[in-house]
UniProtKB/TrEMBL annotation:
<keyword id="KW-0677">Repeat</keyword>
<comment type="similarity">
    <text>Belongs to the WD repeat coronin family.</text>
</comment>
<protein>
    <recommendedName>
        <fullName>Coronin</fullName>
    </recommendedName>
</protein>
<dbReference type="Pfam" id="PF16300">
    <property type="entry name" value="WD40_4"/>
</dbReference>
<dbReference type="InterPro" id="IPR001680">
    <property type="entry name" value="WD40_rpt"/>
</dbReference>
<dbReference type="InterPro" id="IPR019775">
    <property type="entry name" value="WD40_repeat_CS"/>
</dbReference>
<dbReference type="GO" id="GO:0007015">
    <property type="term" value="P:actin filament organization"/>
</dbReference>
<dbReference type="GO" id="GO:0030027">
    <property type="term" value="C:lamellipodium"/>
</dbReference>
<dbReference type="InterPro" id="IPR015505">
    <property type="entry name" value="Coronin"/>
</dbReference>
<dbReference type="GO" id="GO:0051015">
    <property type="term" value="F:actin filament binding"/>
</dbReference>
<dbReference type="GO" id="GO:0051129">
    <property type="term" value="P:negative regulation of cellular component organization"/>
</dbReference>
<feature type="domain" description="DUF1899">
    <location>
        <begin position="40"/>
        <end position="104"/>
    </location>
</feature>
<dbReference type="InterPro" id="IPR015048">
    <property type="entry name" value="DUF1899"/>
</dbReference>
<keyword id="KW-0853">WD repeat</keyword>
<dbReference type="Pfam" id="PF00400">
    <property type="entry name" value="WD40"/>
</dbReference>
<dbReference type="InterPro" id="IPR036322">
    <property type="entry name" value="WD40_repeat_dom_sf"/>
</dbReference>
<feature type="repeat" description="WD">
    <location>
        <begin position="113"/>
        <end position="155"/>
    </location>
</feature>
């Protein structure tokens, strides 16, 4: 066979020489050898051609003083109504809440959410109410806020509820994916607390499971388990209601820099971290057998922490490194090597943080499968990920039914042991946000304690009039203290605005 081919090759050469053409032998040999080279089969995927594009300047949010606090959270949270950004603030901690359409230059006097007395470290929108947001701060508290339907017109200093239970700064807040009013917080006291926001009570306290700082916490699809990554280089899968560790992996990544761990829709755990040689790694684990990873890939030697954002509908993971100027994205499948590289979106400016829009906030008419809100030093820039399609029809393979805003369980049902998957909605006709009900907090631990205290007093046969007088005096004192706190907070906000105006004047004079 090979002789025959070389004979044909010789014939080709002879023909070319007869025509007076030079035909180097190695070129002909190369073309013949190509007959024996196996064809490389490209893996079929509808997401192979996903591309990212930053929006035009007039659709960005400009002149925002993004927080400079040294903490590896995303500093940004997004939902179909608002974008929230942690900002620099004097005399406490604050974050901006902007309606999505409020693009362009943001005035320095724009109202903020400024009730914390220390810098804000993490924020998270409630998945079941687009007007409710939780924040964790260096002041050791978690606060839950109700944002007016059309956004802020005045600075917000009074939260709906203050959750106090951590002894050190609170760096992580995460809402339960399917149960209403269930919020998780994790602090530098190495404790995880799960709250019933509807009553203001801490119902689960996991304070003896981590020996070192917790880097991140992630709920699974139905909220029955959590996984954590910690400074002791362990990845843990925990059942919070049974208060037991279900699975654990020591030295999931051997490097000393921070790790991240998130649950995937199929129950596997995806982690990012560093090797002993400080190379960035990503890995996939099965919680039922965490001896060896399903897949482990080394990426590069940059030292920015990789923040993973996961879309359970398309099984795509987007990795945004802090300080990087790119977003890499991968598809997770059941076929080896399980984590398939798709592409990289690159830009010039490094990112300080990143917000990720839930699926119901995307434009299905433009085949948009993800939208990021990239934080620069002084602005927030939306980046749109699109799958190119020729047809204008609804692409149901890109948009399977996705988690909607309706809670599948009440908080009490979840704490009693029930589980439920998210209630799914179709995006075929686009998502139209409905009216959100107000978050109402009935503080059992405070309000219920008053009548019981009175009952105890009756048993000891203390005259009723004395009890009533004492309670009236206490209430009056409490009102007085609350008024004083409010006036101090208002003064701080006013001073903050005044400082901003003076800074503006200085900038104009300097220019």
């Amino acid at each position: 066979m090979s002789d025959l081919l070389w004979g044909k090759a010789g014939g080709i050469l002879g023909a070319r020489r007869n025509k007076g053409l030079e035909a180097p032998l190695y070129r002909t040999r190369l073309s013949v050898r190509h007959l024996f080279t196996p064809v490389r089969v490209v893996r079929q995927s509808k997401f192979r051609h996903v591309f990212g594009q930053a929006v035009k300047n007039d659709q960005c949010y400009d002149d925002i003083r993004v927080s400079r606090v040294t903490w590896d959270s995303s500093f940004c949270a997004v939902n179909p109504r608002f974008v929230a950004i942690i900002i620099e603030a004097s005399g406490g901690g604050a974050f901006l809440v902007l309606p999505l359409h409020k693009t362009g230059r943001i005035d320095k006097s724009y109202p903020t959410v400024c009730g914390h007395t220390g810098p804000v470290l993490d924020i998270d929108w409630c998945p079941h109410n687009d007007q409710v947001i939780a924040s964790g701060s260096e002041d050791c508290t978690v606060m839950v806020w109700q944002i007016p339907e059309n956004g802020l017109t005045l600075s917000l200093t009074e939260p709906v509820v203050i959750l106090e239970g951590h002894s050190k700064r609170v760096g992580i807040v995460a809402w339960h994916p399917t149960a209403r009013n269930v919020l998780l917080s994790a602090g530098c006291d190495n404790a995880i607390i799960i709250w019933n926001v509807g009553t203001g009570e801490a119902l689960i306290n996991l304070d003896d499971m981590h020996s070192d700082m917790i880097y991140n916490v992630s709920w699974n699809r139905n909220g029955s388990l959590i996984c954590t990554a910690s400074k002791d280089k362990k990845v843990r899968v925990i059942d919070p209601r049974k208060q037991e560790i279900v699975a654990e992996k020591e030295k999931a990544h051997e490097g000393a820099r921070p790790m991240r761990a998130i649950f995937l829709a199929d129950g596997n755990v995806f982690t990012t971290g560093f090797s002993r040689m400080s190379e960035r790694q990503l890995a996939l684990w099965n919680p039922k057998n965490m001896q060896e990873p399903i897949a482990l890939h080394e990426m590069d030697t940059s030292n920015g922490v990789l923040l993973p954002f996961y879309d359970p509908d398309t099984s795509i993971i987007y990795l945004c490194g802090k300080g990087d100027s790119s977003i890499r994205y991968f598809e997770i499948t059941d076929e080896s090597p399980y984590v398939h590289y798709l592409n990289t979106f690159s830009s010039k400016e490094p990112q300080r943080g990143m917000g990720y829009m839930p699926k119901r906030g995307l434009d299905v008419n433009k085949c948009e499968i993800a939208r990021f809100f990239k934080l620069h030093e002084r602005k927030c820039e939306p980046i749109i990920m699109t799958v190119p399609r020729k047809s204008d029809l609804f692409q149901d393979d890109l948009y399977p039914d996705t988690a909607g805003p309706e809670a599948a369980l009440e908080a009490e049902e979840w704490f009693e042991g029930k589980n439920a998957d998210p209630i799914l909605i179709s995006l075929k006709h686009g998502y139209i946000p409905g009216k959100n009900r107000d978050l109402k907090v009935v503080k059992k631990n405070i309000l219920d304690s008053k009548p019981t205290a009175n009952k105890k007093c009756d048993l000891i046969s203390v005259p009723k009039k004395t009890t009533d007088t004492a309670s009236v005096q206490n209430e009056a004192k409490l009102d007085e203290i609350l008024k004083e706190i409010k006036s101090i907070k208002d003064t701080i906000c006013n001073q903050d605005e005044r400082i901003s105006k003076l800074e503006q004047q200085m900038a104009k004079i300097a220019a």
